[in-house]
Amino acid sequence: MTLTDIINKYPFCKQASSARYDKACREWARREKLRTGDKNGDFKITEKPRAEYPRPQMERSNFDILNGSWDYAVISASEYVRKGGRVDKTDGKILVPFSPECDASGVGRILDRNEVLIYRTSFNFAGRGKILLHFEAVDEKCEVFVNGVSQGVHEGGYLPFYFDVTSACREGANALEVHVVDFSDSCPAPKGKQTLSRGGIWYTPQSGIWGSVWTETVPENYIENVVCLPDPGGAQVNINITACGDIGEVTIKIYDEGREIISAKGAAGDNVVKLGAIKEWSPSSPFLYKVLIKSESDSVRTYFAMRKIELVTDMRGYKRVKLNGEYIFQSGVLDQGYYPESMLTPPSDRAMINDIQTMKDCGFNMIRKHIKIEPARWYYHCDRLGMLVWQDMVSGGDKYNFAVIGALPFAGVMLDDTRHYKAFARADETERENYKKFVGDTVKYLRCFPSIVLWCIFNEGWGQFDSVAMTDYVRSIDDTRLIDSVSGWHDQGAQHFDFKSYHIYFRKFRMPKKEKRCVILSEFGGYSMPVKGHMQMPHKIFGYKIFRDEKTLRESIDKLYTHEVVPAIGQGLCASVYTQLSDVEEEINGILTYDRKVNKAGRELLNNINDRLYFEHEAYTTHADRQAEENLAMREEGGDPFGE
């Protein structure tokens, strides 16, 4: 399979640009150019952006970040095929890892589905050992060439991949080309909120390289992957090592804040290490064990944490969440992970830290990462800062049917997702299998991050199918986390899922009666306010409920929590997710403006609200359990706990 073969599969690659594309380009041209920052100024993008090692869970010392200025060209797909993929034109410079649509890239134009984006740069090879070429994310289908030799094709815009390029390399400088096509919402591949029909909750599409690119030098036989699987109950961790070739015996060293506490021998495969007394991870105490794994010729650093998330039934019969054996109310924000100058790509490590720490400083203990997979360093910062994460799967499917995703649920109609594939934009069986594989690959990739405590498989019916079977599939890969199978609507029945998951924007939230599952308010709020000078699309704004001044906005947010969320805790509510962390394009319902420079809701108010949520939850769970224990004791003594 080559990129030419992929282009030949899709007739629209050779068609003229659509009216949708032309309209999207016109609207995108009207954007205001904002820069992400805080009260102290912008987060500056350097000549070599995001230069930190991209994989904290698999860190090596011999690496070279290739981010920076590359040559680029755009050519029609028809001409690309005619030339057999051999293209020598150059249109200018692009700053990798930013998509050409981004202002940060220096290009600022949307790639059409009938175009091919070509990148060129070079990298050095010392000529010793092997050299691996890594890509954090390329949207959406690409072919990679080293010194003119194809190294392979990758399909899928959200997960990392790499090639062993040793056989194509020579000592010294080596030419690298990456050829990319992106069909956006013209094919059923995972695309999240990207669409040419942008507007409202749907955003401008982007393409090409949008994650870090780097090389690393490894020995002939090397450690390929490490997966740490903690077992808090057994006070042990299974460190699974995958090797390329025979790495022989390895030494595993575990550290507690720089102090070596364990040194054990191991090998490729499972290595169960007993810890004895353990330190647990939580938002208030995000302790990480550091690990060094050394073979005769290779070494990597990683980390893990000891934490357990589970559903339990409290003494009054409500399903609730426990973290490390203690009840916890999760108060979170929805986070799309977009930035004004760089879209899906965080402009810097500092920008990622700022988002997480700002929400933590406002009292939130959870972020729902919405329809996006972040760089590994984002999850690492959640791990070390103590922020729980609900991780969405990136949605896919054909063109969504508004009646299914935006009308029927409000009429109380929930479709059977094992029979109505076409209605859910999932008619193609092959694409359903492809998406199932993508979900599995996502779970396998992210399961090492302890901050992630929940997987969200489908959101609001977008490309939903076989959700009961998909839930079983995800649980078969990872049974240590909770699962929100169908967030919002098109629920398939109380007997199948962990949660009854509500999205409430246009009516008051009321707790259901006699619900046997754990109840979560997985989206709500969306209160909006325009802030002059901090909007990307000031000519066209969108919000669920728009306020014109800060005082009214803050009073309304306070009232929403006070009258609808806080009282629901005593009736079984165990989590809430406010929409949303920041504005995105014309959607201005963020706590923060799109450039992160204004906190519209206010840190003091949000802390006050979250303090009330946690206090109410602790008071209820403590009182309920104490009262139930007293009632049980009275019954055992022959008394009447109800005084009848």
How do the strands and helices of this protein lay out in sequence?
Layout: H1 3-9, H2 19-28, E1 37-38, E2 41-42, E3 63-65, E4 68-76, H3 77-82, E5 92-96, E6 115-125, E7 130-135, E8 138-139, E9 141-146, E10 149-155, E11 161-164, E12 172-181, E13 208-209, E14 213-218, E15 222-231, E16 236-244, E17 250-256, E18 259-266, E19 272-274, E20 281-282, E21 285-286, E22 289-294, E23 299-304, E24 309-313, E25 319-323, E26 326-327, E27 330-335, H4 349-361, E28 366-369, H5 376-385, E29 388-392, H6 402-407, H7 429-446, E30 452-459, H8 467-477, E31 482-487, E32 499-504, E33 518-525, E34 527-528, E35 545-546, H9 550-569, E36 573-579, H10 603-636
Parallel strand pairs: 27-28, 27-36, 28-29, 29-30, 30-31, 32-33, 33-36, 34-35
Antiparallel strand pairs: 1-2, 3-14, 4-5, 4-6, 6-12, 7-11, 7-14, 8-13, 9-10, 9-12, 15-16, 16-19, 17-18, 17-22, 20-21, 22-23, 24-25, 25-26
Helix pairs in contact: 4-5, 7-8, 9-10
